[in-house]
Recover the amino acids of this structure.
């Protein structure tokens, strides 16, 4: 037994020294410029522009969410066959429009000929109030131009080096590198995007979230030096808890802005805010605004 203790002593001391060295050299993230001026209150983030209220990822949705007074617009991007960045969630157009097919197989003119309000219903399919209203799939450029001052979360939906480079170029061309947080479920997309666009804030990819959860579980979150500024997570994933009060507190301690998705019931919003969530990514931004005692009437905004 004594021999075993002696045998383990040196490696354990070495590990402890490495841990202390990493902790001493680790540095927290800094607040993204995109959130400066917004961080003193919980953020209301319109998921896909507020898909519970109007057709998702459309200019119609983004304008109304903006008019509602949300803090942030969340949107998803793909690349058309002829190389345009378009704002749409799925890889196919079938679920949200009157068309069929993969986005990467369609040109912009074909995508924009579709009715992006066609499938939206609030009553389980009894009525479709936005059909034939001229609502279409927007390009990212159109959305950036329409909302130059609004903070935006842009999610890369396909790992594609050309898309990532193009996203950076468009943000630079529109002078919006400081207005945006970029996220993705693809770690390699985020890594490449950070390389080509280091001036734009990003959120944690799936591997980074896993690392954070493990470090938090081991009580070692102080070791983390995040390469990202925001943590956008669900409360749980595959039945495993992610956003505990402890994890939120430690992530905030590491300088991260913690935003939870997709939170649609006011009771959940209230509970998560009490746990320390700093942003609510929601299909119903009106509910979050009401809960927070903020204005819920549509008032035309400049951008
Ligand atoms: O931030 C992630 C959030 O947008 C949830 O993902 O599938 O609705 O785009 P999704
Ligand atoms: Ca998204």
């Amino acid at each position: 037994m004594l021999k075993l203790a002696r045998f383990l002593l040196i490696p354990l001391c070495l590990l402890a020294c490495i841990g202390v060295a990493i902790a001493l050299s680790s540095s927290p993230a800094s607040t993204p410029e995109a959130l400066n001026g917004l961080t003193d209150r919980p953020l209301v983030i319109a998921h896909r522009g507020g898909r519970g209220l109007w057709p998702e990822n459309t200019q119609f949705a983004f304008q109304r969410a903006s008019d509602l007074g949300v803090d942030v617009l969340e949107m998803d991007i793909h690349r058309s066959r002829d190389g345009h960045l378009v704002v749409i969630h799925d890889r196919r157009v079938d679920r949200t429009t009157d068309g069929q097919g993969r986005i990467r197989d369609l040109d912009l003119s074909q995508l924009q000929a579709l009715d992006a309000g066609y499938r939206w219903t609030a009553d389980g399919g009894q009525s479709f109030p936005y059909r034939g209203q001229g609502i279409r799939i927007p390009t990212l450029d159109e959305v950036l131009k329409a909302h130059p001052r609004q903070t935006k979360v842009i999610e890369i939906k396909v790992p594609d080096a050309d898309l990532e480079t193009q996203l950076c170029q468009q943000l630079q061309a529109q002078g919006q590198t400081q207005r945006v947080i970029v996220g993705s479920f693809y770690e390699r997309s985020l890594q490449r995007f950070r390389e080509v666009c280091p001036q734009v804030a990003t959120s944690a990819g799936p591997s980074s979230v896993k690392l954070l959860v493990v470090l938090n579980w081991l009580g070692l979150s102080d070791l983390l030096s995040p390469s990202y500024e925001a943590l956008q997570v669900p409360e749980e994933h595959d039945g495993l808890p992610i956003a505990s009060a402890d994890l939120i507190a430690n992530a905030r301690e590491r300088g991260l802005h913690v935003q939870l998705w997709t939170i649609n019931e006011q009771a959940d919003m209230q509970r998560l805010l009490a746990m320390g969530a700093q942003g609510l990514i929601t299909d119903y931004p009106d509910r979050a605004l009401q809960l927070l005692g903020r204005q819920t009437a549509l008032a035309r905004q400049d951008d």
Notes: The domain at 29-76+149-160+167-293 is CATH 3.20.20.190 (TIM Barrel). The chain is about 35% helix and 15% strand.
